[in-house]
């Protein structure tokens, strides 16, 4: 096992910049007090009902995501660099989508293989040739970042469909401010509470040109049984917009309305947290009862903005991911600020051979997978599991990519045995409007609570932390 | 607001109200059942408790005997009974979760807290002490919900729809309790008196939390027609039919004002209220109390339907 870089103590004097006050405080605070605070935090979360549902788990219909009360800190300098990289990355994602759904220049230039795009399950032929109001596809991106040393940040995944987790970013901060007012007084921590405001401004900025100057926004949820329902209702509330389900909407003359107590009311922008497949039974899955018949016609007629646009999944596909450095260079003529994790595309025979030979060192992921499901972590798996996975890999090499097992950075975390380093990642949320790009400083830090574990997904036992960006 | 949201709020309020009413009915039955037979008399107290909640048909299909334990289980905890206290609180919580954006955080915490606390009351149908704690718990939860709604909600359509749910449910419950008990107590002849009746009547009042109110209003010993007058026509009593309809009409008027138009719901409610305002208890008894209440329960149901048709679909 490689020794991971610890974000608090990986220096000769045992404390990295930004962590001085926190470290002193941790050293001086008895574990009993931390335990009490953690219990208080849990009670607060439970009372407001911040829970999530785990698919395929009957026992606990609603679970609390474990929350670690020790914050993760980034200095202003670190954040400035990160956010430049995030803006660059999201610009490239949008340019790529606008291109592949129109002229396909990057494909003709031979930089990205055509079949990777056109035969991608997330590619939507319905979007080809469709001119979107502001040429923006990904208004809300959640870019997963990992770190391996003081200077190297990698993008692990671009979430360009319906990234979730921002409610935890906001609630974690609220709880921390209630529990540790003194720490907040001693630091200069950039606020995150303006996120809903930034999101609403972003959504309104991308309304169809025919919409009134104060467009009506609504948030479309699959409903209370969805794992992220809490977040949907939380955001709708903070945005001050209606939380609608498919059955609340109707399309008349290619205009989308919601059913209200005062009759149908027109909607201009739909922040949809429902996958493409379910959006419109007339266009996509006919068995979907979550969607809205006729929605795609209204969309094609330019009478409603969907956020994110339909068909963005093709850009956050793990195989397309491996081309992101080229994509950034092609559209922006710049060197990528944020690196990609070295990635072997198993669809390429040489790569496949290499991956199979080094399976015990690699992380293998399904191209279309998400949430940490269906992946192999080579070093942690036994031989039998690896052999079974190798068979799957050989049968459908196109479905997989492989990456070296990264020594993700660690952050001090309060666990049963006391304070110990645990691996973390970071999901900042990048908002792209027609006027500008907005990012609130920080994001959601996810932490793998099990010792040595690299999987931070909440569905796999990961937890979250508050993320502090110190004002320079 | 969204029709579905309004519908959820309307039913959320109804479930909470129903849970409290059922708790009161169980409480009253429990007190009667604890008395020596020569005071309480009636041997089918428990069956009448089920009837008062409008679930006698369902209870009978389950094929259980109307013993205290079976009825308490059925009314308080059974998952088979969609109107049991537990079912009501569970459904209220599902509704609340669905429309969280329309609730204030205080209301949500009241419902969510009530639901979370349910797990502390398992298998207690036979334990009277714990049962009392449970019933108190339910009443407090409902008061907390009502109170937080009253103190924290914006006075907009969300408030009006949830208020409509509360009062339509409450009117239904009061009418049923009175009907069932009255029927039971005065089968043929109108002769009233004796210790037996006294406790039965006071149990009716207790189940609508009006025992003290009765004495303040009438300053008399318990008289059946005065009990009926209090529960049907006296608009000072918060659970009387007249008072419920005052509130219902007020909420519907607010809605028509906010939306700039009115419809069948306003007309139906107004005609019922007018009847309650203009009637005397002598008129009511002349036509038969049972007939009056049956008609009222039907009308109340039709108003619920009219509200649904007009706003909630």
Task: Give the helix/strand layout.
The complex is a heterodimer of chains A (472) and B (313).
Chain A: H1 20-28, H2 31-48, E1 67-74, H3 76-100, H4 105-108, H5 114-118, E2 140-147, E3 153-159, H6 166-179, H7 181-186, H8 195-205, E4 217-220, H9 229-239, E5 242-244, E6 249-252, E7 255-260, E8 263-266, E9 269-272, H10 276-279, H11 295-300, E10 305-307, H12 313-316, H13 318-321, H14 324-332, E11 339-340, E12 344-345, H15 349-357, E13 362-366, E14 376-377, H16 383-395, E15 400-404, E16 410-415, E17 418-427, E18 429-432, E19 437-439, E20 444-448, E21 462-469
Parallel strand pairs in A: 1-21, 3-11, 4-5, 4-9, 9-10
Antiparallel strand pairs in A: 2-3, 2-18, 6-7, 7-8, 12-15, 13-14, 13-15, 16-17, 17-20, 18-19, 20-21
Chain B: H1 3-33, H2 37-40, H3 45-52, H4 56-61, H5 68-77, H6 85-98, H7 105-117, H8 128-152, H9 157-185, H10 194-207, H11 211-218, H12 224-232, H13 241-259, H14 264-278, H15 281-287, H16 289-312
Helix pairs in contact in B: 1-3, 1-5, 1-6, 1-8, 1-9, 1-10, 3-5, 3-9, 6-7, 7-8, 9-10, 9-12, 9-13, 9-16, 13-14, 14-16
């Amino acid at each position: 096992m490689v020794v991971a870089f610890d974000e608090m103590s990986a220096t000769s004097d045992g404390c990295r910049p930004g962590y001085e006050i926190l470290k002193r405080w941790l050293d001086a605070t008895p574990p009993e007090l931390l335990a009490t605070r953690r219990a208080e935090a849990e009670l607060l979360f439970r009372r407001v009902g911040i829970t999530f549902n785990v698919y395929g788990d009957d026992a606990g219909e609603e679970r609390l995501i474990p929350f670690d009360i020790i914050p993760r800190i980034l200095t202003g300098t670190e954040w400035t660099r990160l956010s430049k990289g995030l803006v660059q990355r999201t610009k490239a994602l949008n340019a790529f989508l606008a291109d592949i759904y129109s002229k396909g220049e990057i494909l003709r230039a031979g930089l990205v293989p055509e079949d990777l795009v056109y035969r991608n399950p997330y590619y939507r032929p319905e979007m080809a040739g469709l001119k979107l109001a502001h040429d923006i596809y990904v208004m809300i991106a959640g870019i997963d970042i990992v770190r391996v040393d003081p200077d190297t940040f990698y993008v692990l995944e671009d979430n360009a469909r319906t990234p979730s987790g921002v409610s935890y970013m906001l609630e974690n901060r609220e709880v921390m401010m209630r529990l540790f007012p003194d720490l907040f007084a001693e630091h200069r921590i950039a606020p995150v509470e303006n996120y809903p405001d930034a999101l609403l401004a972003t959504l309104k900025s991308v309304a169809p040109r025919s919409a009134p100057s104060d467009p009506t926004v609504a948030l479309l949820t699959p409903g209370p049984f969805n794992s992220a329902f809490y977040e949907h209702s939380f955001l709708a509330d903070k945005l001050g917009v209606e939380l609608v389900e498919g059955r609340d909407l109707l399309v008349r003359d290619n205009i989308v309305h919601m059913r209200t107590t005062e009759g149908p009311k027109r909607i201009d922008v739909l922040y949809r947290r429902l996958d493409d497949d379910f959006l419109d039974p007339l266009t996509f899955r006919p068995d979907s009862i979550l969607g809205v018949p006729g929605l795609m016609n209204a969309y094609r007629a330019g009478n409603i903005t969907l956020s994110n646009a339909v068909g963005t999944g093709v850009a956050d596909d793990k195989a397309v991911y491996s081309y992101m450095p080229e994509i950034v260079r092609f559209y922006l003529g710049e060197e990528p600020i944020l690196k990609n994790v070295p990635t072997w595309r198993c669809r390429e025979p040489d790569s496949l051979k290499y991956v199979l030979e080094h399976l015990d060192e690699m992380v293998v992921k399904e191209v279309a997978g998400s949430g940490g499901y269906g992946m192999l972590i080579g070093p942690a798996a036994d031989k039998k599991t690896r052999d079974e996975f190798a068979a799957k890999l050989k049968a459908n090499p196109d479905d997989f990519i492989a990456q070296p097992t990264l020594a993700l950075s660690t952050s001090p975390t309060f666990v049963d045995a006391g304070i110990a380093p645990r691996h973390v990642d970071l999901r900042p949320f990048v908002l792209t409007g027609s006027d500008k790009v907005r990012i609130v400083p920080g994001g959601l830090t996810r932490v793998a609570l099990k010792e040595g574990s690299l999987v931070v997904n909440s569905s796999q036992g990961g937890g979250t932390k508050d993320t502090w960006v110190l004002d320079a | 607001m969204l029709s579905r949201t309004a519908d959820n709020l309307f039913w959320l309020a109804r479930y909470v109200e129903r849970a409290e009413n059922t708790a009161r009915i169980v409480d009253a039955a429990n007190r009667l059942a604890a008395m020596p037979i020569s005071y309480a008399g009636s041997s089918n107290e428990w069956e009448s408790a089920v009837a008062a909640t409008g679930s006698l048909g369902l209870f009978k299909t389950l094929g259980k005997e109307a013993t205290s334990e079976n009825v308490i289980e059925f009314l308080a905890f059974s998952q088979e009974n969609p109107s049991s206290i537990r079912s009501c609180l569970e459904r209220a919580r599902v509704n609340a979760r669905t429309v969280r954006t329309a609730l204030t955080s205080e209301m949500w915490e009241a419902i969510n807290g009530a639901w979370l606390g349910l797990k502390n009351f398992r298998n207690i149908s036979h334990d009277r002490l714990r049962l009392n704690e449970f019933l108190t718990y339910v009443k407090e939860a409902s008061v907390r919900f009502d109170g937080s709604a009253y103190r924290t909600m914006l006075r907009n359509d969300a408030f009006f729809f949830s208020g409509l749910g509360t009062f339509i449910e409450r009117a239904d419950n009061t009418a049923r309790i009175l009907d069932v008990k009255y029927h039971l107590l005065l089968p043929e002849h109108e002769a009233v008196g004796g210790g037996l009746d006294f406790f039965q009547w006071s149990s009716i009042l207790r189940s609508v939390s009006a025992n003290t109110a009765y004495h303040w209003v009438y300053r008399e010993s318990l008289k059946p027609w005065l009990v009926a007058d209090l529960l049907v026509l006296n608009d000072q009593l918060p659970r009387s039919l007249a008072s419920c309809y005052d509130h219902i009409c007020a909420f519907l008027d607010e809605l028509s004002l906010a939306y700039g138009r009115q419809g069948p719901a306003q007309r139906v409610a107004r005609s019922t209220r007018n009847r309650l305002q203009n009637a005397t208890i002598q008129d009511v008894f002349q036509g038969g109390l049972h007939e009056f209440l049956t008609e009222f329960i039907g009308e109340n149901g039709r108003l619920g339907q009219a509200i649904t048709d007009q706003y909630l679909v």
